[in-house]
# Entry
Amino acid sequence: QSALTQPASVSGSPGQSITISCTGTTSDVGAFDYVSWYQQHPGKAPKLIIYDVHNRPSGVSSRFSGSKSGNTASLTISGLQAEDEADYYCSSRTTSATLRFGGGTKLTVL
Amino acid sequence: EVQLVESGGGLVQPGGSLRLSCAASGFTLNDYWMHWVRRVPGKGLVWVSRMNGDGKTINYADSVKGRFTISRDNAKNTVYLQMNSLRAEDTAIYYCARDLAAAAGPALESWGQGTLVTVSS
# Structure
C-alpha cells in the first residue's frame, strides 16, 4: 500500500498563500470525497484541519481550505502565520475500506 | 472533554507481542469508529487499523493483517491493539484516534498522545 504523494516540503512568507498537493489514484483520492488533512507540530499529536475534501472542523481557522480534482486533492493555507509551520498530512479512504496517508509535507514559514 | 490515553508501549524483541490500550473518556466509545495510526520517528503517519462502534466492522493495513488485532471493551471504554510477531519495522509511536461523527468519511478528530513501541534485540 503506497502512500499518497505529497511534496516533501513547501515554504512561504508570512501573509502569503501556499498550496500542498496530495496525489493518489482511482482507488483512493479519486474514488471518494473522503480526503482529510492533518497538521502536526513536533512532539504533538496530529490535528484534523479539513475533512470530506473541503469541510473544516469547529474551531479551525478559515485560512485553511481544501479542494479536489480527479485523483489530486489540495490544501491551501492563506495569510500564512508563523504558527502554521508544521508537518501536514493528507489521508483518503480507499476502495479496500482502509485509510491511506500521504508521506507528509513540511511547511516552513520564512 | 474528549480524552484518549494510550499505554502499553515498550521495548520488545523481534517475534514478541505487546498489547496497547487506549482509554477513552468524555464520550461513549460505542458511538464511534476508532483507529490506530503509527508514526515512525522522523517519518510519516501510517494507518494501522479501525473498528466501528459495535465492533462488527474491522479493517487492517496489509502490513499488519494477520499479526495485529484490534478490539474494544465498551464497558471499560477502552480500545486495544494486540500486536504479535512483531518486526523491527513495527517500531513507531502508536496513536489511537476517534472519528469525527459529522464526517461522511474517515476523519480522525481526536488523538491520544501516543505510546512508543520499539522492536529490537
